[in-house]
Amino acid sequence: MMEAIKLEIVQDYINQFANQPVYVHLETTNGAYASHFNANAYNVGAYIRNARLTYSQGKIVEHEGSYRVGLKHEIGWIYAEGLTDFEFNENNQLLIAGHDKEGRLMVALQISPEPFSY
Amino acid sequence: MNFEEHNHVVVIYPHPDDESFGAAGTITKFRKAGVPVTYLCGTLGEMGRNMGSPFFANRETLPQIRKKELQDACKVLDMNLEMLGYRDKTIEFEPRDEMAERFKNYLENLGATLVITFYPGFAVHPDHNAMGAAAFEAVKMMDPDQRPTVWATAFSNDHVEKLGKPNVVIDLIDSFDQKLDAIKAHRSQAEGMLSQLLANSESDNEYEAALERFRFEGFYEVDIDQVNY
């Protein structure tokens, strides 16, 4: 079960995964129905499932109740904004996500020592 | 409507819950008439953003949760289930002819006399449109005298303007229990929506609020040789 981000705990997990090959899931979405329900809205979304990389440093930063995470890897960066909740699951995967007031996922950054399923 | 006229109804939609929101009452009527119904469900809705309200799923647990919800909904509706194993949000990137060939084999093997699917171009979600297009294509590939009837679900904001009103409308006043139970089987997806419906309704009763919104299921019966998509 995901719970509200605790900065020190998440930072510890991020540190644990540094300097070793990891698999990253990164996504953001405002839903497939955004412009269906609101003519002024515009559907945007992107996801990467299982980017394999090694990051040398990672940091979580709090901003007015939500969080940003940046991971510096060999040839670039991974970045996510609007994160609110986290879970470290039984597969040793760090799941971090941002949910809206209705509990819908808006953004996710996940790190795993093995490829994510599917 | 003579529901018992059909031999086998095949529902082709991409996501767990499409069948419940789109066709649960119609499926119930076919089952009550003794007609077998099979759901070809494209994906497990792996990329859904509803995680329950309040949320209890996450991106990694959602597929298995939705699989169970789908199986429960199919039990409520007493229909057969085939999970096709595509991935949510990727259906439009799969080769359409390969999908159509696969669907055609199902339709022939099951002896389908009616296909219920999405109307390509009028079904809002890219998976809906792509799944419907492959289903249309599958029917087109069959011998004209073997082809099942096609009923297509459309709900884009312009669907009435462009297509007119649905020419098949099923009133669920006498089979709404199953429709609501099937929707509620999809707890991770439906809970938030149902409580919003209730909040926006003049009724303080969930059944009444849902009935206002979902009483009728509309479809376009299409001539597969004439339809543009």
Automatic annotation (TrEMBL), chain B:
Pfam family, one: PIG-L
InterPro entries in UniProt: BshB2, GlcNAc_PI_deacetylase-related, LmbE-like_dom_sf
Cofactor: Zn(2+)
Domain of life (superkingdom): Bacteria
PANTHER family found in the cross-reference section: N-ACETYL-ALPHA-D-GLUCOSAMINYL L-MALATE DEACETYLASE 2-RELATED, N-ACETYLGLUCOSAMINYL-PHOSPHATIDYLINOSITOL DE-N-ACETYLASE-RELATED
Name of this chain's protein: Bacillithiol biosynthesis deacetylase BshB2
Taxonomic source organism: Piscibacillus salipiscarius
